[in-house]
Design goal:
The two termini are 18 Å apart. Helix 2 (48-74) runs antiparallel to helix 5 (153-182), helix 3 (89-117) packs parallel to helix 5 (153-182) and helix 4 packs antiparallel against helix 5 (153-182). This protein folds into two domains: 16-214, Up-down Bundle (Alpha-lytic protease prodomain-like), CATH 1.20.1510.10; 219-294, Cation efflux protein, cytoplasmic domain (Alpha-Beta Plaits, 2-Layer Sandwich), CATH 3.30.70.1350. It is elongated. The protein has helices spanning 17-45, 48-74, 89-117, 124-146, 153-182, 186-214, 224-231, 269-281; strands at residues 3-6, 237-247, 253-261, 287-294. It has a four-stranded mixed beta sheet, with helices on one face. 62% of the residues lie in helices and 11% in strands.
Length: 304
């Protein structure tokens, strides 16, 4: 006998979709405009750091657009082909965004090495002023996501993109000032490599977390021992085994488990199930499926 318990309540820690829609749209518009400015300024000034940062900002625009699309898809209703809907698209997008960043790092480092070998004159003042504008734009966009960054992997990714870009822009400002006064054009390439290292550092955890969810691993914030201990507190539950926890999306988690109950308590299984559902909601698990077993039955599962 199987019992399915589904709940789709909004939690206080869940990101507010309307707020995030506005944040993503603002981020896309501002960064698209800034990419155009950086490309023009980079071509005029001959700055590699501006051009590579423009390329990175373009990847940010793509990432923000993908994340926004994923949030839209996550709200789509389930159907006969996709019984969970398109919730998993948020996980795919977070992984794809991490890969975009890593590819961008490779491009930045390659171009910096080429520029070391073939230095070109750079207008340091132009570089500094454009990058200064980048600090304001990226800093503002990061601020839009800061409140919800711990509630969703895609929001965290967007926040990291923008926060890293603000730091990168600061580095470019410094390099522009140094080049303006010293004419040491190699500084531009050195800053580009530092930019790549900073991006890679900020991206690594995002890549690991998204890959973990993609492989149906237990979400990082989930503690199986804590979950089992909480469920064992429910009246009528003798034991729990064959428990699986995974992510349906970057904001929703699911659980399946075999519940061992005494034969005389099977009539109260709906009440037990209701109690367990509310305990799981407090543990950020919104979808649960339970299979009851009697305590006088022999368990044939390997993890009993």
């Amino acid at each position: 006998m199987h019992s399915h318990d589904h709940s789709h309540h909004h939690h206080d820690h869940a990101p507010k979709i309307d707020h995030l829609n506005s944040a993503f749209i603002w981020g896309i518009v501002l960064n698209s405009a800034f990419v155009i400015i950086e490309v023009i300024a980079g071509l005029i000034s001959g700055s590699l750091s501006l051009l590579t940062d423009a390329g990175h900002n373009l990847s940010d625009v793509a990432s923000l657009a993908l994340a926004l699309l994923a949030f839209k898809l996550a709200k789509a209703k389930s159907n006969k082909d996709y019984t969970y809907g398109y919730k998993r698209s948020t996980i795919i997008v977070s992984f794809f965004n991490a890969m975009i960043l890593i590819v961008a790092v490779g491009f930045i480092v390659y171009e910096a090495i080429m520029r070391f070998m073939h230095p070109e004159p750079i207008a340091g003042g132009t570089v500094a002023w454009v990058a200064f504008a980048g600090i304001a734009i990226n800093g503002f966009t990061a601020w839009l996501f800061v409140k919800d960054k711990d509630s969703d992997l895609n929001v965290k990714g967007a926040y990291l993109h923008m926060a890293v870009d603000a730091i990168v822009s600061l580095g470019v400002v410094i390099s522009g000032i140094i080049i303006y006064f010293t004419h040491l054009v190699w500084i531009d390439s050195a800053v580009s490599i530092i930019i790549g290292i900073v991006i890679l550092t900020g991206t690594w955890n995002l890549l690991k977390d998204s890959l973990r969810l993609e492989m149906d691993g237990v979400p990082k914030e989930m503690d199986l021992k804590k979950i089992k201990a909480e469920l064992m507190k429910a009246d009528g539950v003798v034991d729990i085994h064959h428990m699986h926890v995974w992510a349906l999306s970057t904001t929703e988690n699911a659980l399946t488990a075999h519940l061992v109950v005494k034969p005389e308590n099977i009539a109260q299984f709906d009440d037990i199930k209701h109690d367990l559902r509310h305990r799981l909601e407090h543990l950020s698990i919104s979808h649960s499926t339970f299979e009851p077993e009697f305590s006088n039955e022999k368990c044939e599962q390997p993890d009993c």
